[in-house]
Prior knowledge:
Elements: H1 21-52, H2 58-73, H3 75-83, E1 91-92, E2 101-105, H4 112-122, E3 129-134, H5 143-149, E4 153-155, H6 159-170, E5 181-184, H7 193-206, H8 220-229, E6 235-240, E7 245-250
Parallel strand pairs: 1-7, 2-5, 2-6, 3-4, 3-5
Antiparallel strand pairs: 6-7
Helix pairs in contact: 1-2, 1-3, 1-5, 6-8
Amino acid sequence: MEEVCTPLKSDSRLKHRPLTPLRLLRGVICLVVFLSTAFICIVYLSPLAVVGLRLISIRYSRKAVSFFFGLWLSMWPFLFEKINRTKVVFSGDSIPMRERVLLIANHRTEVDWMYLWDLALRKGRLGCIKYILKSSLMKLPIFGWGFHLLEFIAVERKWEIDEQILQKNLSTFQDPKDPLWLSLFPEGTDYTEQKCKSSKKFAAEAGLPVLSNVLLPKTKGFHTCLETLRDSLDAVGLEVHLSFHFCHKMTRRHHPLHVGC
């Protein structure tokens, strides 16, 4: 049975709150705690989970990484929602717990990937969320090290290079027993007015739909993810803007895959 997605009624009063000294202080405290604990996890826990257990079993290694990653990462929604007092609103279809999902998200800000943690935590998939991201992010101190250990997929945003990268890395996630939330940003970059103008110009010249609130999505990466993981996914989900209007369709393995909204 299919569920109907209804639009979220946005409350403009929640937007563009002034940056007060107190809010700035709370944000700095959250960031310092987050980065310092990340460094501790990478230095002390990752060698055991990634190197030690991987010699015995890739599955057990991934489970250990997922456990430690989820344990540490669960701190962020607490800091973000309770300490920083950020209100996160979810709407759309009811999402079952603990599924293997290909999650498609638009990219309105540079930190959209952090907002997905709030949803993943509530659905028992926080530790196994993985991202397809640009390769330059893998060079960041602390974060970049973690991205490598967590098996995030880095792409160059050049299809002649990325096609083989995606196929090679995605093939390691085909086991349906491995928990997975694979997050993909089809726009390829965060939204700005200038990028939107360029996207509209390209779409008009190519005879494609001209979009106003999002950038024209790139489809080759999505298609490769879908085809490679089709037999091991439970569903494909769509996250719209930062309010989590989540459209979801259930699909069982070995049956046709339905894409939500």
